[in-house]
Amino acid sequence: MQWSEKPSCYDAAMEREAMLAGWKINPSFPENKVVNSVWGQPPPVKNDKPSVVDLVQKDLSSRKEFGYRKYKTTLQPHNGRDALKDAYEEALDLCQYLRQALYEKDGR
Asked: How far apart are CA 23 and CA 7, in angstroms?
């Protein structure tokens, strides 16, 4: 992959190409000092644990069943609710859970 200029954002799909191109990227969280990694984290290591995609699919199936029992329908478009507002409120909750977990892990 060839780029004429450095893009304004990076994602996992671009990481390898960017590193091969010699870009030095400051990690989003500079306190994460990992040797030999300009990204702040080492590459993932293959192991014998389950696929995260499989776990998510199982969770989605469970949420679908829960939603049907609670609302007597599955989540569908044009259901009378504002999906962006619902998603934003859920994202705010997610941020709180993530911050809680970080604090509980690191004590800060």
From this structure: 11
Tally Cβ neighbours within 10 Å of residue 18: 19
55/69 same-domain check: yes
- Count Cβ atoms within 10 A of the Cβ of residue 37 and give its class: 0-12 exposed, 13-18 middle, 19 or more buried: middle
Using one digit for the tens of pLDDT, what is the confidence trace for 19-55? 777 766 555 555 444 444 555 677 889 999 999 999 9
The domain total for the chain is: 3
- Domain match, 23 and 59 both: no
33 and 21, same domain (yes or no): yes
81 and 104 share one domain: yes
CB 14 within 8 A of CB 7: yes
Q: Which stretches of the chain are DSSP H helices? A: 12-20, 52-71, 83-106
59, amino acid identity: D
